[in-house]
Amino acid sequence: MKPALLVFSYFSRFASRIKNFLYDRGLLRPRRAPLPVISVGNLSLGGTEKTPLAMELLGRLIAIGRRPALVSRGYRGRWEKTGGVVSDGRTVFGTWEEAGDEPYLIARTIPQAGVYVGKNRLSSCRRAAEAGFDIAVLDDGFQHRRLARDLDILLFSPEEKTAWREPLSSFLRSDILFVKSGEAKAPKIERWQGRYSGALFTYSVGLRGIFDLRSGESCSIGALAQKKLLAFCGIARPQRFEETLGRAGLTVVSFLPFPDHHPYRAGSLGKIYRVFSEKGADALITTAKDAVKIAGRIGELGAVPIYILEVGLDIEPGFDDCWRAFLAKSQTP
What we know:
alpha/beta, Rossmann fold, 2 domains, 13-stranded mixed β-sheet, 11 helices, globular
């Protein structure tokens, strides 16, 4: 762990202990939104599949006839401080620079969902309710205790050595705990499992498809396996993207990681094109989160073929019954 992250983690955990004490003792009280709230969050600093899970929930809610809205801070977007409507369920407004890359990706991928951003999550929930949405999915909301939630879902990877936002025991506060397949019996889980009253589900990251960024057409793994690829991404855990490409059987001749939420200015695109030429690659491949930031500027990469690898979560059976029970409970007078 980098020294800066270690220091940040220490102070974050210290501050969280104080905040949790105040909320747990009733000295601070969360404020309730005018619609049910499902929170998706984690204990670490990014990289635990929060966005794929939020998208999975939005899709499943839409499938049963609900009108869900994603409520997000819109990290690093221009609307983060002021708040903004990224999508009203019909039209996508603004750009990824205004909305933030992840909310904008969700707005483009799930057009039926509302997407609201801003630091004031309660205000976003109110705007969503006024627009006719009937349930909110709160992205990265576990530490945002000022907003009451009806269901707290926490993604937790006990095997990772990373900077923690809160003490590990904080997972006891969640209603549903998501742990990657193979990690459910980790010592960090078993130490507290006797005191955990929520439901535990395992999940894995699965490949959903590969698409041509220029045409939008689907591309088979077999066709792409014959090409030499330069892969690049700007996500919290770039090694996971590299590992996913390897498991898919793709040939990566060079891998360029950028910082999380990287904006891909001209210098970055120039570097990608230069390495592409130097390595003799046939095509580029990146994540869906990164693709939304270069889609309008692919001309700067010449005629280079660019592919998007899309992933989703494969969740063990029983999860649908669990969150549907929550919905039934939230509708009970």
